Amino acid sequence: MSSANPQRPTSRPRERRTIARNRSATHEYLILDEIEAGIVLYGTEVKSLRGGRCSLQEAYCMIRNGELWLMQMHIPEYAQGNIHNHKMVRERKLLAKRMEINKWDRKVREKGTTLIPLEILWDGSLVKLRIGLCKGKKLYDKRQAKRERDDKREMARQAKSGRYDN
Question: Is residue 29 very low, low, confident or very high in pLDDT (cuts 50, 70, 90)?
């Protein structure tokens, strides 16, 4: 008798849904590397996130005492919460592998690099945060990126209309 049960359903891949995205991060920073980390949250924070309410605009990450921390992320209070509701803006610990934290700690000590949260998402029933190791863009880099985006949009528009003339 084999140990595998043919009637037992196989586990499905976990559904991944975006809660909030930091849109200005790709405009303001050049993303060098990314990792995904878990977040330590209170129950009312999770319930508030289920409603899709969160802001990453002012948020940033830092490494303190060998641990990764998320600062200034705004999660509004849970509407049906009671006196034990969470603070809207507080330091939240991030869960990542020690080797990744140490590698990024060395890189962050270099001038001009920082850790920016890019996206907060559901991974099944878990809340994950995509963090980018970023370097600030100069003004001319932003202009060049905008020009490339506009050129790509114009080429797509012309290809759609069937005109290939300049």
Answer: confident
